[in-house]
Amino acid sequence: MKEAKDNFSTQSDLYVKFRPEYPDALYEFIFKLKPHYVVAWDCGTGNGQVAAKLAERCHLVYASDISQKQLDNAIKKENIHYLHARAEATNLPDNSIDLVTVAQAIHWFDFDAFYREVYRITKAGAVVAVWCYNLPQISPEIDSILNDFYNNVLDGYWDIERKYIDENYTTIPFPFEELEEIPQLSITTNWTLEHLLGYLNSWSAVQHYIDKNGTSPVKDAELKFREVWPENKVLGVVFPIAMRVGTT
Question: 179 CB contacts (<8 Å, ≥6 apart)?
Answer without folding.
Answer: 33, 245, 246
